[in-house]
Write a structure and sequence with these properties.
Blueprint: H1 8-17, H2 21-57, E1 77-79, E2 104-106, E3 111-113, E4 123-132, E5 135-144, E6 162-168, E7 174-179, E8 185-192, E9 203-214, E10 218-226, E11 233-240, E12 251-254, E13 266-268, H3 272-281, E14 286-292, E15 297-302, H4 317-329, H5 350-356, E16 361-366, E17 373-383, E18 386-396, H6 398-447, H7 466-478, H8 481-514, H9 523-543, H10 545-554, E19 559-562, H11 563-577, E20 583-587, E21 593-596, H12 598-615, E22 622-628, E23 634-641, H13 673-683, E24 687-693, E25 698-705
Length: about 700
């Protein structure tokens, strides 16, 4: 059997290949880090969601009054996202390019009404909305196979393609507007009567402006209206009229019906205070959602943009060249991905249901294009032991892949020089070693004659290694054996040091990798301290609300106001806003003119009517009566049937911070409503009283005005 002979060089070279096990073990370790990093990321994001929920529980007032509104149907909801720049009303969508994720598609399944000649697929549009400062901007990219413009000779305004807008004003009035045009260009809205049989003339609403431009697919319509016009509900609908002579309004497609207040979509304008609070708590590649108990978005902060390597620009040229190679062998984070949640105004899903049921949850989801994985953590927001909403945090997990790639690059960058340098040193050392051994062999053969005699004593080597020791050993066998032993003992420690040096370099590199720790979170405590100060400041601001209102009242201007006409207008709005309660208005046939500030009078009536609604029994009548007392004071009385006032509270009912509401109510009340009523009536040099009624049981609030 022939044995393969390996030279010393070959053996040392083969041994050097085992150094490759070091980067392979490092590769396995880096890949194993993914599970640990994901687990750490889940725990960290869950803790952040819990902390944010606690902060929001201290700022329930920032969650907006809409969080307390119950909806009985699955109506649409619109969260008005802020825009970075104003939109130029020209009918072109160039300035909407940065908001492409805000566009929503409306097609056949969103048809509200079909005309007899409607063709499937003939009408659909994409809609985007946003806010900039005090205005709402909206764009409608309509696909329409036949555009019909308004005929100025026709009295009907719905004989053409037009946009319908229906909204609930902050004063509780239901308003409808039609936007049409006779030709492309600038357009304005027309205020429509709520009653189709009403002969009230149609009025132009100049506060709503727009622009209409034709496109290859149909037309584009841009509009702008003040946010101050919008209350808690808003809906848009496109009316497609292909035959203006048919006598009907054509097909209608939109987010919700614009004919009835109850069918309108709810809308939420971002709260600057809540947005500011969320921005202070955000972090890169993460997004924070705040929703109410109806899953409607109340606030949104941050984004899930693709993670980029911020250190790439600071790398040297050779490192950048290596990075190009690493991109070929390592999986890279996606430059972009589709985010189906970016434009939604209502959130759904198992994690949302779980959070609204009172349980926090953490889950992973892939984007629709499978280019990224998103970590989601949800936590309920509580108030008075009841769930009033939820907070959802999302974070882009591509940072984990980026950290893995960076660790892998550093591992390879360190391993390749070490491997190449170590192999080169081993080869050089092996060559030098074999040459010296060969030389010693030759000297030994020449020192001994063929008969076994020592021909001469060769010169001992001066090298301080084993070969030098061997050379000196042969010499000392003939001359100084004890000197050889002394050299052998002294060289042992030096040899040990030389062998440990390359091993120490590799061991220290591995120790550095094992000592990598998660990112420090010391800054969190500083942020929490600042948030605590902010909460205290908000509490002080809330307590000073009444004093600021008193100063504003003193600056109001008084004019002659007919309370009869004012009441008729307000009661009509109340009946629309509170359809579950009938309203009865009784006005005596007398002059009821007073010197007053109309806005303050309406604000005072809103407080009292809201109070009457809150404490009245279901389906009972709210009665409002305007008459004169015996001493000719004008008396405005508001009756409601319900629980009587506590006797001990009647004396200080209109004081600040006094409330007779149950302590377990879901909404927080500081007891300022009736106090504001007292401030306003005293500003008008009148007075207010509250009494219990016996038949039927209930409460009456009476306002007394001095006539002019």
């Amino acid at each position: 059997m022939i044995k393969t002979r390996f030279s010393l060089k070959t053996k040392l070279l083969l041994f050097s290949i085992t150094i490759l096990l070091i980067p392979w073990i490092g590769y396995k370790y880096v890949r194993g880090m993914e599970t640990f990093l994901k687990s750490s990321m889940e725990e960290a994001l869950g803790n952040r969601a819990h902390s944010l929920a606690i902060v929001l529980q201290q700022h329930v007032d920032l969650l907006s009054n809409q969080a307390a509104i119950n909806i009985n149907n699955e109506s649409e909801h619109l969260y008005l996202r802020p825009l970075d720049n104003p939109i130029q009303l020209d009918g072109y969508t160039d300035d909407w390019h940065f908001s492409q994720d805000l566009f929503q598609e409306y097609s056949e399944q969103h048809i509200i009404k079909k005309s007899s000649d409607h063709k499937p697929g003939s009408l659909h549009f994409r809609q985007a909305t946003g806010s900039y400062k005090q205005h709402l901007f909206a764009v409608f990219k309509v696909n329409d196979n036949q555009i019909t413009y308004h005929n100025p000779n026709n009295n009907r305004i719905d004989d053409c393609d037009h946009l319908r807008i229906a909204l609930l004003t902050p004063q509780g009035k239901f308003q409808r507007y039609y936007l049409s045009t006779v030709a492309p260009g600038r357009i304005i809205a027309q205020l429509m009567p709520n009653d189709p049989d009403n002969n009230t003339p149609i009025k132009a609403e100049t506060r709503i402006q727009g622009a209409w431009q034709e496109t290859a697919e149909g037309y584009t319509l841009e509009i702008r209206l003040p946010i101050s016009m919008i209350g808690s509900k808003l809906s848009f609908a496109i009316n497609d009229v292909d035959d203006p002579q048919a006598g009907h309004s054509g097909s209608i497609i939109g987010s919700a019906s614009t004919e009835h207040l109850s069918a309108l979509s709810t809308i939420k304008v971002p709260s600057s205070g809540l947005e500011k609070l969320l921005n202070t708590l955000g972090m890169d590649s993460s997004r924070i959602w705040v929703i109410d108990k109806n899953k409607r978005v109340l606030a949104l902060s941050g984004n899930l943009q693709a993670v980029t390597d911020t250190d790439a620009s600071q790398r040297s040229v050779p490192t950048k060249l290596l990075s190009l190679f690493y991109r070929l062998i390592l999986q890279q984070p996606a430059a972009s991905f589709e985010d189906i949640l970016s434009g939604v105004s209502k959130l759904n899903g198992r994690e949302i249901e779980t959070a609204l049921s009172g349980k926090p949850t953490v889950s992973w989801r892939e984007t629709s294009d499978q280019n990224a994985t998103i970590l989601t953590a949800t936590h309920p927001v509580m108030s008075h032991n009841a769930v009033i909403g939820a907070v959802m945090l999302e974070q882009n997990s591509q940072r984990i892949l980026l950290m893995q790639n960076r660790a892998m690059e550093e591992l390879i960058n360190l391993s390749i020089p070490v491997f190449l340098g170590g192999t080169l040193l081993i080869v050089l050392f092996a060559g030098r070693l074999t040459s010296r051994i060969s030389h010693l062999r030759n000297q030994t053969e020449q020192a001994i004659t063929s008969d076994g005699k020592v021909a001469h004593v060769f010169n001992a080597s001066n090298s301080n290694d084993e070969i030098g020791d061997l050379s000196r050993t042969f010499s000392d066998l003939l001359q100084r054996l004890h000197q050889y032993n002394r050299y052998l003992e002294s060289m042992a420690s030096k040899l040990s040091h030389e062998l440990r040096t390359p091993l120490s370099v590799v061991r220290s590199s591995l120790d550095n990798l094992e000592q990598v720790q998660p990112e420090s979170t010391n800054n969190t405590y500083l942020l929490r301290a600042k948030e605590g100060l902010e909460r205290l400041n908000n509490i002080l601001n809330r307590l000073s609300e009444a004093s600021r209102l008193e100063q504003a009242i003193q600056q109001a201007d008084k004019v002659t106001v007919d309370l009869s006409a004012l009441l008729q207008s307000c009661v009509a709005g109340y009946q629309t806003a509170y359809p579950q309660h009938p309203f009865k208005l009784t006005i005596s046939e007398q002059n009821h003119k007073v010197l007053a500030a109309p806005d303050l009078i309406v604000q005072m009536l809103d407080k009292l009517v809201t109070n009457a609604i809150d404490f009245s029994q279901a389906d009972t009548t709210i009665e409002i009566r305007l008459d004169r007392t015996d001493d000719q004071w004008i008396r405005l009385s508001i009756f409601n049937q319900g629980p009587p006032l506590p006797v001990e509270m009647q004396e200080n009912l209109f004081d600040s911070m006094i409330s007779v509401r149950p302590t377990n109510t879901r909404s927080s009340h500081l007891g300022l409503g009736l106090y504001i009523v007292r401030l306003i009536i005293e500003f008008h040099q009148g007075r207010v009283e509250a009494r219990n009624m016996d038949t039927p049981d209930g409460v009456v609030f009476m306002l007394y005005f001095k006539p002019i």
